[in-house]
Design brief:
single chain, Nuclear Transport Factor 2, Chain: A
Length: 107
Amino acid sequence: MTGSVQARGPVPGTVALAQLPAEAQATHRLIRTGGPFPHHKDGSVFGNRERALPAKSRGYYHEYTVDTPGARDRGARRIVCGGRQPAHPDACFYTADHYASFREIAP
């Protein structure tokens, strides 16, 4: 699938923010403004155990929930951002399948 990557590979493609679901766009706006975030786990460290994202030191990546309409829990959609300043990340990645694949969000 073009623009996505399976776990353990480098992230090869990008996706424009405007191409993401409206809920992902809203989450991205919250990240850029520093919140507040609707889920208590938003902003927690993403360990990249799947090694699907570029290797960085622990604490570099943080994850945020992208709401899924009709889901009774947090669902599978997330945005994971990396960088030293959470509101000004170096890069953000979108996953619709709970970390099985990622696409980098174009700046």
